[in-house]
Amino acid sequence: MKSKLCLVLALMLSGTVCLGGAVEWGIFTIYNYESGVSELYGEIYDGGLGGGVGLGFETQRYSGGATMVHRPEYTTLGYSLFLLPMDVGSLVDYESVFVNGSDFFQNMKNGVPSVPFSILQGKTAYLAIAFGVLGDSEQDSWLRYGWIEFGYNGANVFIVNSAVETTGLGIFAGTGNVVPEPSSVLLALSGFSLLLLRRRKPVL
Q1: Which segments of 16-144 does DSSP mark as H helices, in order?
Q2: Does residue 140 register a pLDDT over 60?
Q3: Which terminus of the chain has a lower count of CB atoms within 10 Å, N or C?
Q4: Is 195 strand, coil or helix?
Q5: Which domain holds residue 13?
Q6: Strand 117-120's sheet: what is its strand order?
Q7: Cα–Cα distances in Å, from 103 out to 82, 115, 119?
């Protein structure tokens, strides 16, 4: 009986990672222009808010790979797109992007290749993204978090897959697992509490 209880508890706790928000898949596209500049474009709408954003970049090719260098003169204004290299499974949220990763996206914004994002040919690499409007604090911001998986075929950088969560709480890179809203966590804990109460032997 204990083993069954432990199994139910493990499933409920793991399930809280996936509860509480939808995921938009494949909303980003790369357009390549004759000028040699490419544009990373995506859009998302949520509750009447949202919009589209385009980020221009130049592909600097080298033997066995390529580096994406931001071209700010080809980047749209309005809603912002912040980028940060991220490993699969890492949490993409306000702290990881704007606290721990501020140096990277500031360099990308200013077109400074001192922190380049490189992709090896035949392999993929991930960028974490924060998409929306950045206020003075996390509470003043309207942001959605996600990730983009890039590849390089020897000629162009391309997108393998991408996902953006719609809660504003965060997502794990390379997956569709989102950070749950507090109500979802409480629901899971309440269910576990009821399970424990049902197992208690009645007092005679």
Answers
A1: 94, 102-109
A2: yes
A3: C
A4: helix
A5: 1-20+180-204
A6: 28-32, 37-46, 49-62, 65-70, 117-120
A7: 11, 8, 20
How many domains in the chain? 2
| Residue that is written with structure tokens 């109460």 in the block | 197
Residue 111 burial (CB count, 10 A): 15
Let me know whether 111 and 186 are in one domain: no
Average pLDDT, the chain: 74
pLDDT in tens, 86-136: 899 999 998 888 777 665 655 555 544 445 688 999 999 998 888 777 777
Tokens in use for 147? Answer: 């990730």
Report d(CA 16, CA 95) in Å as an integer: 20
Query: How far apart are alpha carbons 10 and 13 in whole angstroms?
Result: 5
5-19, 112-126, 175-189: which has the highest mean pLDDT? Answer: 112-126
